[in-house]
Amino acid sequence: MANGTNSGNGKTTLGERLAGVGDRIQGSEAWESIFRPGSPFRKGYTDSPRNRSYVVMNNVLYHLHAVKVKRHGVRLSYTLCLGGLTFFMFIVLTITGIFLMFYYRPTSPEAYVDIAALSTDVAFGQLVRNLHRWGAHLMVITVFLHMTRVFYHGAYKPPREFNWVVGVVLLFLTLLLSFTGYLLPWDQLALWAVTVGTNMGGYTPVFGDQVSFVLLGGIQVGGPTLLRFYVLHVLALPFIIVIFMSVHFWRVRKDGGISGPL
Amino acid sequence: MAEIPEHLLRRSAEAKAKALGVPVEQLMTEFLGEAAPAAATAAEPVASPASTATTTAPAAPVIPEGVRTQRMLTVVRAKAIQGAPREPSDKVSTWPHLLAIEFVALLVALGLLIVFSVYQDAPLLELANPNEQPNPSKAPWYFLGLQELLSYFDPQVAGVLIPGLGLAGLALIPYVDRNRSIRPADRKFAIMMFTFFVMAAAILTILGSFYRGPGFNFTFPWRDGIFFDL
Ligand code: HEM
Prior knowledge:
By secondary structure, chain A is mainly alpha-helical. Chain A has 12 helices and 1 strand, in the order αααβααααααααα. The radius of gyration of chain B is 36 Å and the shape is elongated. Helices cover 55% and strands 1% of the residues of chain B. Chains A and B meet through helix 3, strand 1, helix 4, helix 6 and helix 7 of A and strand 1, helix 5, helix 6, helix 7 and helix 8 of B. Protoporphyrin IX containing FE binds next to helix 6, helix 8, helix 9 and helix 12 of chain A.
């Protein structure tokens, strides 16, 4: 230690040695190749306006944001973080959902058996299932609250009209995702809730029967419905909603960032 | 300024002459007077085109259909191109101000979700049985408002027309509401309408969730219990 504050006896303490290791790791080429200039994890990070910009510009995730945002938009009381939390719930659901897919077969009656086995045979299985289910309900709630907050701020007014329309599509997709997922445990609750829900589609004038046949893959909720809802739930709908979310976030920025102040 | 080749000047003069209906040569002399820096005194070349423009025709002549014209580049002040009003804006760095708040919000939400999930298990009833319909059968909670409507209206109205119109109406809000102000005081009507529909949806959903029992008949949750699963 060149200029370290040695404890009186001339030996380096453990803390100092650890700090030295940390310094060397942070200074290594590998570390610097991962954390780009301006990253707070990089050696010699200082809080300067330039580094603050780099943090956002040099990171693919933070790059969702602009380097600078309106001061009032940062206040928690403006957006209540509701859009961001909706997005976060979607990420939590993706992660827990992938875990659940490892243990799930979309066939009748294996689907039910697999879900029941989560609580007995799988480490943290029940907890992850709970997270997925409560997270899904929470996402429906946050997306709805996000919509009402956007309305009360008049944030759908020009130039943000189209982003509101994208949002309505997102609301619809969120409900569809939740609804298709509701069938998957294949218990009495799932079967009959989805039966009641899809019956409404059957009331579509003129081609109601066709609509309900395409939805169910048959004339009533059964094995084919389960497979259909499964594919929609884990593949088709997430794919579509990610596209719409990308447009949504992009438009938030292109429309000049957060609306307001009021 | 660079010398403009004469054939370009002539083409431009011809096009302008055709549009304004003035002789080509008159415009040519004007152009040359303007373009040749040695021949011009400081004030004159600026003044002369302006005066012809005001006397003969409006500044931007109407170009006849099918005629391709070219414009010569001029120096335009940056402000006019960007068009962004340069009002002073009050901005802060995203890092750390916004990212820190988002991170805390994320942690709090995740924490609440985990705590709730540890103490409350997701429901799992018996295996699905198409021959045995539970009574009552309810849709997921976010559709219970619609199911509640089903007990007042024809299925085609409650199940198709109202949700369809609702969603379409929601999407059309920005195009129907032509009021540009975002001040709450200026949008009393819009706020009233929206609040009305949100409250209606909430009340219907609560009724469908907690006040409907076997046969989807009306019950009181404190009297007959709750017939509702998440
Ligand atoms: C999956 C669903 C959705 C996600 C992940 C999402 C995400 C976001 C995020 C992160 C923002 C930035 C501001 C904020 O956090 O409030 C935002 C803004 C916005 N959202 Fe959403 N949103 C969703 C659904 C909706 C819905 C249902 C609507 C309306 C019908 C909507 C309309 C808007 C509008 C107009 C803005 C701009 C608000 C402003 O400038 O103040 N979004 N959204």
